[in-house]
Amino acid sequence: MDVRAALCLLLWAVLFPAAPHTAPGVLSKGSRAGDLQDGCTDLIPCEDSGTLCIQACSPSFHGETSFVCKDRTWRMFTDACANLDVQSLFQRISKREPLPSSEGHIAGGHFPFVRPGKPMHGKPGDGAKYFGADDRGKSNCQADFSCIIPDILSSPAIPGNIADIVELLKMISLMLSEDVNRGKMQSYSKIANHILNSSVISNWAFVKDRNASSTLLDSVNLFAGKLLLRNGSEHIQEHFISTKGFSIHRNASGKSFDFSMEVNKTNYVSGRVVIPEEELQKLPNTSKAISIAFPTLGAIIEASRPDPISVNGMVLSVSLPEELQHILLTFEKVNKLESVGAQCVGWHSTERRWDNKACQMKSDNISSVVCMCKHRRRTFRSFSILMSPTLLRNTVLDYITCVGLGLSIFSLILCLTIEMAVWHHVTKTEITYMRHFCLVNIATSLLIADILFIVAAVVHNTALNYRLCVAATFFLHLFYLALFFWMFTLGLLILYGLLLVFFKITRSVFIVTAFVIGYGCPLVISILTVAITEPKNGYLRSGACWLNWYETKALLAFAVPALSIVAVNLAVVVVVVVKTPRPSIGESCKSRDLSNMIRISKNVALLTPLLGLTWGFGLATVVDSHSLAFHVTFALLNAFQGFFILLFGTLLDRKTREALRKNCLSSKRECSLAKKYCRAGGLVCF
Description:
Elements: H1 3-13, H2 32-43, E1 52-56, E2 64-70, E3 73-79, H3 86-93, E4 105-106, E5 109-110, H4 135-144, H5 149-153, H6 159-175, H7 182-196, H8 212-224, E6 233-237, E7 242-248, E8 255-262, E9 268-275, H9 277-280, E10 287-294, H10 297-304, E11 315-319, E12 326-332, E13 341-348, E14 353-355, E15 359-364, E16 368-374, E17 380-388, H11 394-426, H12 430-461, H13 466-499, H14 507-533, H15 556-579, H16 589-610, H17 618-623, H18 628-639, H19 641-651, H20 654-680
Antiparallel strand pairs: 1-2, 2-3, 4-5, 6-7, 7-10, 8-9, 9-12, 10-11, 11-17, 12-16, 13-14, 13-17, 15-16
Helix pairs in contact: 6-7, 6-8, 7-8, 8-10, 11-12, 11-18, 11-19, 11-20, 12-13, 12-14, 13-14, 13-15, 15-16, 16-19
C-alpha cells in the first residue's frame, strides 16, 4: 500500500495500537534483572504508564538497565549491563595504538570502554592480564583473532554483551578486514555465532540499539566479502552462520550455493542461491562469489525492531561483482501452514528495512518460495521471505488510490474553477460568503496535499536527497493538517448558523479567525514536529516520506488533531440532524417520516465528505485489519475525496447551479449578439 493509504490507516492505528512486537519483559524475582526491577519498585511507584526507571548494574557489570511502567508493573525496556572488556579484546587483535578511552567513539561506533589499566570486574573480560603479552603472542592473535575467542564464548549472551560484540565485529570489519584468510573468517564466524544462537533470540529485544541486528548483518557481509579463496573455493560452517565462496568466470554453466542449517534444536531449514548462466556471461574476467546464510537472523531482526513483520525463512547474503545484478534464490519456509502466504524481500542496508521492490516471486508452494532478486552492492545484498497470513491485495488498493488521486486532482481543479466563475453570484450574503470561503480553502488544501503526495512518492522512489524527503514530508503534514482545520472551521460555521442566530460576525473578523485556525495552527504544529524530532533523526518513517511512528511517535502530531476534528465534526452532524426542519402538518404520517428521512440523509451525505468524516471509516480496518472489503471501502472513500467535494460541495448546491445556469445563458446571449454585429458589418463570424 502506498504512503497515502498508509497514513490513512495509521491515523486510526495510532489510537488503537496493537501490542508492541517486542513487549517489555516481566522479570522474575531472584534474577539479576529482577533485583533491579525490585529497586525500581522501591524507588518509584509505577502509576503512570510510560514512566522510565533507570538502574545501575550490579558490581560485576558495567552499564545500566532501564524499566518502563506498564499496567502498574515495571517491565524491562533496555538492558545495557555487560561484563566484556571490549577495548582490551580489540587491542589484542589490532596493530593499532590503544583506542581513546575518555570518549569511547570510533568511526561512528560507541564502545563502553574503560580506562587502560583498570580492568572490568568478574570473568570473562579480565583483559588487563593480556596487556603484557609478548609480541609473538600478539602477532599470532592478529593472524587469526583466535586468542579472543575463549573470552567471548565464555561470556553470557546477555543484551549488553550482545551490543558490545556487535560493535566489536563492526570495528573488525571496518579496520581489520585486510587479507581475510580462513583462520580470521573462522574466528569471526565463531564470535557472530555466539550471539546468533537460537537460545538468545529473546535477549535481542532488550538491546539498547534497535539497529544492532542490521549493523551485525552489514558487518558480516563486509568482512565475508573480503574472504580469500583457497584453490578456488572456501566453506566455513558454524551452527548459525555459514559462509561459502567460489571462483566464477564467464564460461561457467552456472553456480549455486546450497545451505541446510539448524534453526533450533528440533528444526532445520534450507536455502539456495543460484547465479544464472546469462549473468555469468557479463563477467569480464575471473572473479569470486561469496554467500552467507543466517538461519536465525530473521527472527533476531523481528525481535529487535518494532516493525510488525515476520521472517519465514533464512536470510541469504551474497557478495558478487558489480556486473552480476540478478540472482535466483530458493527459501524453505519455516512455517509451512497452507494459510501462510509469502513475500520475497531484500534488506535495504541504507534504510534498514525489508523492501519488496528488490525481488520478484517466481513460485510459491506450501514448503518453499523461489525469488528473483536484484543484487546491488550498496543497497541489496541480503534477502529473505516475509510471512503474510492474510496478504491483502495491494495491487487493488494501489489501483484505487492511483485512479482516485487522479480524479481527485481533476475534480478539485474543476471545483476551484467553478467557484471562481460563480463567486460574485453566490457570496452576496455573509453566511454564503463564509461557506464558500471555507469550501475554496478546503479544496485548495486537499489539492496541494494530493500534489505533494505525488512529489513525496517520487522523492522516495528515486532515492533522492534526504533533505528533499524531509521537506516533502513537512509540507505534506502541513497541508493535510490545513485540510482538517479548514473542515473544523466549516463545522464551527455550521454551528454558528444553527445555534447563534442573533449573533452576527463581520466578514473581516471571520477571515482573520479562519486563517489563524486554518493555516496558523497547522503551521505551528508542523514546525514544532520537525524541530523536535529531526535533530534526533526521528522525523521520517522507514521506507516512506512520511512521519515516523515507531521511534519518536511523530505521527501523533497528525493523528491527534485530525481525529479530534473528526470527533467534533461528527457532533456537528448530529446537531444538524436534530435541527433538521420537520415537514408540514398537512402531510400523512408515512409521508412525514419519508420526507424526514430524505432530509436527514441528504444533510448527512452533503456534510460527510466536507467535514472529513470519511476518514472515520478507518475504524473498520482496525476492527478487522485483514478484511479486504474494509480496506477497499476506506481507500475508495478517501482517494475520491476531491470528487466528493466537487459533487456535494459545488454541483449539488442549488445557488451554485443557478449561478452556472445564468453564466451559461449570459454567455449564449453575448455570443448571439456578437454574431448579429458580425453579420451587420459583413464580417465572417465563428
